[in-house]
């Protein structure tokens, strides 16, 4: 199996990502680290431990990370993820274990270097922990296979007109990631928003006898997409879980290596990922000389049916390696 570590802000769809990662036989989930984002970091830790326990993965180490972005105060996403960050689902159990006694950066460093094979890191949250890791322990880069992050957008944003939430929440941290010199895949809003599980499948999951599949169904029902042709059966987006799908099935997305920069300026573009899709350098580069351009494999298209099937087969326990 592919060794992976998820850095998350659980988070309704982070929970969907964790359930998928635990269940897929081709993935070896070695640790989960938590960061402030959708809710405060203690809430993220609690939610993460709860989800792992329900999925039968109470052995996976979990660590608490940054409680705010590098520069700005934390801003929660209660309007999307509920007061508890998990959609305020009734009856969620309180976790029976505590997080690791080391912080997220220490756990990431330790687990990445201890792994016999290079690790794929999957951040599905603001990139604060990852930036701190890269600045504190730059030696981790030698045992990172790739960083597949959910964040950014080529086209429209969600937190603002042009900025996606994870990058907008900590733009400086995202800039550190994008210049880290490791292979990066950007699973941005352009693909993120398209992978929607149809309503009948969500209903089947919600009726499952398996607690993990049932939780996935309840979480998906909290993320209604636009109504389908009948107008009353909206289904639910897998969100962050799509970034994990790309690790087991990279052919499910279409990527292009493109230069990506984060807008750090105050004002309406702060947190925007500026993706350069021009076929050749523009006027400014011709006049001023080329600046170093950091290429990122940007996901531009996704095979929606393929990822929906992969997600359902995995969470319902019928996926092949
Ligand atoms: C991202 O922000 C969070 O709300 C989701 O969990 C996802 O990681 C989408 O912009
Ligand atoms: Ca998230």
TrEMBL record:
<feature type="compositionally biased region" description="Basic and acidic residues">
    <location>
        <begin position="275"/>
        <end position="288"/>
    </location>
</feature>
<protein>
    <submittedName>
        <fullName>Pyrimidine-specific ribonucleoside hydrolase</fullName>
        <ecNumber>3.2.-.-</ecNumber>
    </submittedName>
</protein>
<dbReference type="InterPro" id="IPR036452">
    <property type="entry name" value="Ribo_hydro-like"/>
</dbReference>
<dbReference type="GO" id="GO:0016798">
    <property type="term" value="F:hydrolase activity, acting on glycosyl bonds"/>
</dbReference>
<feature type="region of interest" description="Disordered">
    <location>
        <begin position="264"/>
        <end position="288"/>
    </location>
</feature>
<dbReference type="Pfam" id="PF01156">
    <property type="entry name" value="IU_nuc_hydro"/>
</dbReference>
<keyword id="KW-0378">Hydrolase</keyword>
<dbReference type="InterPro" id="IPR023186">
    <property type="entry name" value="IUNH"/>
</dbReference>
<dbReference type="InterPro" id="IPR001910">
    <property type="entry name" value="Inosine/uridine_hydrolase_dom"/>
</dbReference>
<keyword id="KW-0326">Glycosidase</keyword>
<feature type="domain" description="Inosine/uridine-preferring nucleoside hydrolase">
    <location>
        <begin position="4"/>
        <end position="308"/>
    </location>
</feature>
């Amino acid at each position: 199996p592919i060794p992976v570590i998820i850095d998350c802000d659980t988070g309704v769809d982070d929970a969907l990502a964790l359930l998928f990662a635990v269940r897929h036989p081709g993935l070896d989930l070695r640790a989960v680290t938590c960061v402030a984002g959708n809710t405060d970091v203690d809430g993220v830790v609690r939610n993460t431990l709860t989800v792992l326990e329900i999925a039968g993965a109470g052995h996976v180490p979990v660590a608490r990370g940054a409680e705010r972005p590098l520069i700005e105060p934390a801003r929660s996403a209660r309007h999307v993820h509920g007061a508890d960050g998990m959609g305020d689902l009734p009856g969620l159990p309180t976790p029976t274990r505590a997080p690791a006694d080391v912080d997220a950066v220490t756990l990431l460093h330790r687990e990445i270097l201890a792994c016999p094979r290079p690790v794929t890191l999957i951040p599905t949250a603001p990139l604060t922990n990852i930036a701190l890791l890269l600045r504190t322990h730059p030696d981790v880069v030698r045992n990172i296979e790739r960083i597949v992050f959910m964040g950014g957008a080529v086209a429209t944003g969600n937190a603002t007109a042009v900025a996606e939430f994870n990058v907008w929440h900590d733009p400086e941290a995202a800039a550190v990631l994008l210049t880290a010199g490791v292979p990066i895949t950007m699973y941005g809003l352009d693909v993120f928003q398209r992978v929607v599980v149809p309503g009948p499948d969500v209903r089947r999951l919600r009726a499952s006898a398996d607690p993990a599949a049932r939780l996935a169904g309840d979480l998906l029902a909290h993320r209604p997409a636009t109504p389908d042709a009948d107008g009353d059966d909206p289904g639910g987006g897998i969100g962050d879980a799509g970034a994990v799908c790309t690790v087991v099935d990279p052919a499910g997305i279409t990527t292009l290596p493109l230069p990506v920069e984060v807008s750090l300026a105050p004002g309406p573009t702060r947190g925007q990922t500026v993706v350069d899709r021009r076929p050749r350098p523009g006027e400014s580069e011709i006049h001023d000389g080329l600046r170093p351009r950091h290429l990122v494999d940007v996901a531009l298209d996704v095979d929606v049916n393929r990822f929906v099937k992969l997600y359902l087969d995995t969470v319902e326990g019928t996926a092949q390696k």
